[in-house]
């Protein structure tokens, strides 16, 4: 099976970034767990290239509420956009790309 060059580049970039970011990911997961109760990751429905999928993100609000006030760790995650780091897993799965346009929430596409 042949893969387009862009897809191979996505795998390489996402794989290398995940390996390099592993200490940061573990540290952030511990910080989130110490800051609030609940899961470390949240799942958000998104649409990319006309296909729906579930994007992974670090949880930055006290509950699974996209519009709640961020926690102490959550402010850092949102200000630096590190909350999106787990989406590299979505890139490895082929659900999104490193270079394509930002995925949208299905609500905006209906």
**How many helices?**
4
Overall SS class: alpha+beta
What are the low-pLDDT stretches, counting only 5+ consecutive residues below 50?
none
Could you say how many structural domains there are in total? 1
Query: How many β-strand stretches?
Result: 2
Q: What profile does the largest beta sheet have?
A: 2 strands, antiparallel
Order of helices and strands: HEEHHH
Sheet with most strands: strand arrangement: 1-2
Beta-strand percent range: 5-15%
Shape: globular
Give the helix proportion (percent range): 40-55%
In angstroms, what separates the terminal alpha carbons?
Answer: 35 Å
Determine the mean pLDDT: 85
Rg from alpha-carbon coordinates: 15 Å
Note the main attributes of this structure:
110 residues; alpha+beta; two-stranded antiparallel ribbon; 4 helices; 2 strands
Task: Please give a structural write-up.
- The protein has 110 residues and is an alpha+beta fold.
- 46% of the residues lie in helices and 15% in strands.
- The protein has helices at 5-35, 72-80, 87-93, 106-109, and strands at residues 41-48, 51-58.
- The longest helix has 31 residues, at 5-35.
- It starts with a helix and ends with a helix.
